[in-house]
Every structure is written in C-alpha cells, then in structure tokens.
Write a structure and sequence with these properties.
Elements lengths: L1 E7 L3 E7 L4 H10 L5 E8 L6 E8 L4 H26 L2
Antiparallel strand pairs: 1-2, 2-4, 3-4
Helix pairs in contact: 1-2
C-alpha cells in the first residue's frame, strides 16, 4: 500500500491510497464520518478497474491528520475486539 499526499491544509487533507479498491477505503470513510469534527469525507476510484482511491477529508475543529490518526486507531481497536471475540467463540 502506498499513500501520496496531494494537499495538507489547515482543515483539508487530500491523498491517494494505492493498492486498495473499496474494502479499506470504505471502512476508513465510515470511521472518519463518525467523528463530529469531520465536515466532509469521501473517496473515489479514479478508474473502475484501478486500485487507487482519492480521499478528501474536511474538518471543522480538529486537524484532518489528527482525525485520520484517531480513525485508524479506532479501526485497530475494532479489529482487536473482533479477533478477541472470534478467538473466544471458536474455542
């Protein structure tokens, strides 16, 4: 996976996420949109057969990079909880 920052401004962050189609980008978008500081968040594929998503995050009160960091930590916590529950259920 490769990340290429297009622009990083006070309340807006745009970047490309290469090597993923919809699975990770959609999960990230959903987690980002749960943050009250996110005014707008979306991604799109540049081409239907491409594995390059273009993200845009616009925030109101927090820096977009902080919101992104928080969302990634939240995803990791969700995955850890899922693994723990799955391990418990499969014993």
């Amino acid at each position: 996976m490769k990340i290429e920052v297009i622009s990083n401004e006070k309340n807006t962050l745009e970047f490309y996420l290469e090597g993923e189609r919809h699975t990770l980008p959609n999960l990230l978008k959903e987690k980002l949109n749960q943050d009250a500081a996110v005014e707008f968040c979306a991604y799109r594929l540049e081409h239907p057969l491409d594995k390059k998503s273009r993200f845009i995050i616009k925030t109101t009160s927090k820096a977009p990079k902080k919101v992104l960091d928080d969302a990634l930590k939240g995803i990791q916590e969700d995955l850890d909880a899922f693994k723990k529950a799955f391990d418990k259920a499969s014993k």
